[in-house]
Write a structure and sequence with these properties.
245 residues; 14-stranded antiparallel beta sheet; YmcC-like fold; mainly beta; single chain
């Protein structure tokens, strides 16, 4: 999953005066995150009692639209993420459906539905995605699509209830298809994006054994969620707006 996700307008109350910028960058296949053991949190032992996702670092409030933009080597990229009012039951768990679309110079290049649920412990689990890559209005492939419980795929954790520096965890667990991992780099970063400056941000370094050269840095603000993604070549996809629909 490469799309930033986040949330509610109340998060604007957490904005602080501008006093710094986001750091970070990519890495290489020898980046030490690859050697960190993954935190073990078996899905089988997780308990899910409802469909509310209010983890402070990854809140998904239905009716929220968030917009990201940034310049890349291929052109101007825009990501539009909508937390829908829809749910989907996977492995007996009611998941919130999130719709995200990626545009390059105004043309859609990706169209994805993601499925999330929060355990009673506060971890946000990722149950898969229905993703389409698009060129000139035509679907080219559905690479990366998976559903927990189907063809050996399992649910992963997209956000821990209480992340700690040095932890690593599996966000996706579909062998050979989607194997995104995250390593916690920091908890107190100050990050400036077009919408605002946020302090006390979570910084993760995301990587996958399927593409060892693709290591991203992501930043999450309390009450908002993801606000910035930095690609291996330094491209910044930044939060520019939070809306309700």
């Amino acid at each position: 999953m490469r799309i930033p996700l986040l949330a509610p307008v109340v998060a604007l109350l957490l904005i602080v005066p501008a006093c710094g910028g986001g750091g970070g960058g990519g890495g290489d296949p020898l980046d030490p995150v690859f050697s960190v053991p993954l935190l073990s949190k078996p899905f089988a032992s997780a308990v899910f009692s409802g469909d509310v996702i209010d983890n402070p670092l990854f809140p998904l409030i239905p009716g929220t639209r968030t917009i990201f933009e940034g310049d890349t080597a291929d052109g101007r990229e825009q990501v539009v993420v909508e937390v829908t009012y829809q749910t989907k039951v996977i492995l007996g768990v009611t998941c919130v459906v999130v719709h995200d679309q990626v545009f390059l110079d105004g043309s859609m290049i990706e169209d994805t539905f993601d499925w999330f649920a929060q355990s009673d412990a506060g971890d946000v689990w990722y149950f898969g995605e229905d993703s389409k890559e698009i060129l000139n209005g035509v679907v080219q492939n559905t690479n990366g699509s998976f559903e927990a419980g189907v063809n050996g795929a399992s649910a992963g954790i997209i956000m821990l209830a209480a992340p700690a520096v040095g932890q690593a965890y599996a966000q996706e667990d579909a062998p050979g298809i989607a194997e995104d991992r995250a390593h916690v780099e920091g908890l107190l970063d100050i990050v400036t994006v077009p919408l605002a400056t946020y302090n006390g941000c979570l910084h993760t370094r995301d990587f996958t054994p399927l593409e060892p050269d693709h290591i991203e840095d992501k930043y999450y603000a309390t009450g908002v969620g993801n606000i910035l993604t930095i690609s291996p070549d330094g491209d910044r996809i930044e939060l520019i707006a939070i809306e309700m629909f």
